[in-house]
Specification:
alpha+beta, 3 helices, 34% helix
Length: 242
């Protein structure tokens, strides 16, 4: 080998060495990505459990695809269970809330498992029949009549009934305001009645609350005067609330 040939050969080696030393180096390993904080609700399978497809410098692990599918299925089952549990809790809670609201004045027409919109509307029932009603009905007026059945027989002899005793007695009351009226009464005898605008509301005794309007008539009647002193008999107490 002459000098020119040797120089050319050595130059080629140097050039090759320069190319290989300046080329980028491919890393053998990649830093794994760290999972976000928290606990996965299912068991995760190990990565790269079995490798059967290798194309240097990359490797494909078919088992990872199988594991991923299984994990997705497990997540679906877990999610279904969680949703079912939440639905059960919500339905039970709405039913319980519905029963309590009905007991406090909401409409009993609410379904056993109402929607949240229906529960929201039911709050208006409680407000209107409770708090708002109380705000709007702050006035009261009580009228007591305790002599519809007076201890008074014309004969003046005893407490037995005589033809000369007072006969039928009645009492009429005209409601003065729109609102609620509580009526408590006790009449004496067999032939008695209590009426609101001509409709019976009870017999010889009662304790009722009715809705009235200004001008409504309350009427009480008994065939004969009683012979027992009030308050045991012969009394009427009317309380208007508006």
């Amino acid at each position: 080998m002459n000098k020119k040939t040797i120089a050319a050969f050595l130059g080629g080696i140097a050039l090759t060495a320069t190319i290989f030393t300046t080329a980028p180096v491919v890393k053998d390993a990649v830093t794994p990505k760290v999972d976000a904080a928290g606990t996965c609700p299912i068991t995760l399978q190990p990565i790269q459990s079995t490798g059967n497809l290798v194309f240097s410098p990359f490797s494909f692990y078919s088992s990872d695809l199988t594991n991923l599918r299984a994990e997705l299925n497990d997540l679906g089952v877990w999610a279904d269970g969680e949703i079912s549990s939440i639905q059960s809790d919500v339905s039970s809670g709405k039913s319980s809330l519905r029963d309590k609201m009905v007991s406090r004045g909401a409409s009993s027409s609410l379904p056993s498992v109402p929607t949240f919109a229906q529960l929201k509307d039911a709050v208006d029932d409680i407000w209107n029949s409770g708090i708002q009603y109380q705000k709007e009905h702050t006035n009261t007026k009580t009228t007591a009549r305790c002599n519809i059945s007076p201890n008074a027989d014309a004969s003046g002899e005893d407490d037995e009934w005589h033809p000369t005793d007072k006969q039928s007695m009645d009492y009429t009351y005209n409601v003065s305001h729109n609102g609620t009226v509580r009526i408590i009464w006790r009449l004496d005898g067999d032939d008695v009645s209590a009426k609101h605008n001509g409709s019976n509301i009870g017999g010889d005794s009662g304790n009722v609350v009715i809705t009235c309007h200004a001008g409504d008539t309350l009427f009480f009647y008994q065939k004969s005067a009683g012979r027992v002193d009030p308050p045991s008999s012969g009394y009427i107490i009317i309380t208007e609330i508006w």
